[in-house]
Design brief:
By secondary structure, this protein is α/β, with parallel strands linked by helices. It contains 10 helices and 11 strands. It binds NADP nicotinamide-adenine-dinucleotide phosphate (NAP).
């Protein structure tokens, strides 16, 4: 039987519709809406396109979206002052500083300066600690792993008692995802193994996975014969392997490949995410969800 394709674009659409409806409901009841500030330093083309999409999506949700563009030459102190301004602004519930920052600015210093209760990216150590404690302590799970958990849940892939193998131990994906999936509770309760470049015999770990998450950033790293028949394969990898002309726009675009061989796995896996169109679209949906939750926490105070 062919694997069921988990379509991130469709799941994102459903989540965004729910967020939009909830925001409209809050607006009717209280006259208030979630506020998100997106802070961009410089004009890195990838960062500009990510921020543009975040701003557009936040506006579509009905959020109060404030966009701050600082020049590449801005000092670390100017950026810290901007963060502090929005820490104190009650109409702003989420602060997003687009990474990476120019080399003369200490990224950690900026992340640590964000009020943890407004850190909708979930990168502040306080939020990482909350995630580790789990359950009701978790406030803002980082968006990519949160998107994966949401995808599994909405696709009906149970995690309870499952063997999960995650290839990649970054602070952005692998480590937080492992914590989320081994937590006690709903959409978790799995037995999790994290693999990395120090892992001996990666194949043998992958082969026993009920849910295999590839988050290494290595095109085609996971060989089809490493995947257990019927397993769920979540491919987080986004690797640029060349360029092509887009049929839609006529412009040059990157050819993207995941860490797995999608076509070969169609006849082996039970569930699979495509690249692009799988995990990627989920990240922005979870950012909007974290922002709505940040707003809800202040309304409940
Ligand atoms: P990262 O910080 O570079 O971490 C990669 C991890 O994979 C590291 O832990 C590394 O091990 C491990 N690894 C690399 N090559 C390996 C190999 N041959 N065998 C075993 N382990 C290996 O990357 P990341 O930020 O987590 O991102 C991973 C991938 O996901 C990238 O392709 C990125 O573009 C993509 N991504 C997508 C989204 C999205 O779709 N929204 C979001 C974030 C990331 P060591 O720790 O030993 O070096």
């Amino acid at each position: 039987m062919q694997a069921q394709i988990i379509n991130g674009l469709e799941i994102r659409k459903a989540i965004l519709e729910e967020i939009k409806a909830e925001t409209a409901e809050y607006k009717t009841k209280t006259g208030k809406v979630p506020g998100l500030v997106t802070i961009l330093v410089g004009e890195n083309p990838a960062s500009v396109s990510y921020v543009t999409l975040k701003v557009k999506t936040a506006l579509e949700m009905g959020f109060n979206e404030v966009q701050v563009n600082l020049p590449e030459s801005c000092t670390e102190q100017e950026l810290l002052d901007t963060v502090e301004k929005y820490n104190r602004d009650d109409s702003i519930h989420g602060i997003l500083v687009q990474l990476p920052l120019p080399k003369h600015i200490d990224e950690n210093k900026v992340i640590y300066a964000i009020d943890p209760d407004k850190d909708v990216d979930g990168f502040h150590p306080v939020n990482i600690g909350r995630l580790l404690l789990g359950g009701k302590h978790t406030k803002y799970p980082p968006c990519t792993p949160a998107g994966i958990v949401e995808m599994l849940s909405r696709a009906g892939v149970g995690t309870e008692g499952k063997e999960v193998v995650i290839v990649g131990r970054s602070n952005l994906v692998g480590k937080p995802l492992a914590n989320m999936l081994c937590a006690k509770g709903k959409n978790a309760n799995a037995t999790v193994t994290i693999c990395h470049t120090g892992t001996k015999d990666l194949a043998s770990h992958c082969k026993r996975a009920d849910i295999l998450v590839a988050a290494a950033g290595c095109p085609g790293l996971i060989k089809p014969e490493w995947v257990k028949p019927g397993a769920c394969v979540i491919d987080v990898g986004v690797n640029r392997v060349g360029e092509k002309i887009s049929e839609k726009t006529g412009k040059k675009v990157a050819i993207l490949k995941g860490d797995t061989d999608f076509d070969a796995l169609l006849d082996i896996a039970g569930y699979i995410t495509p690249v692009p169109g799988g995990v990627g679209p989920m990240t922005i949906a979870m950012l909007m969800k974290n922002t709505l939750n940040a707003f809800k926490y202040t309304m409940e105070k």
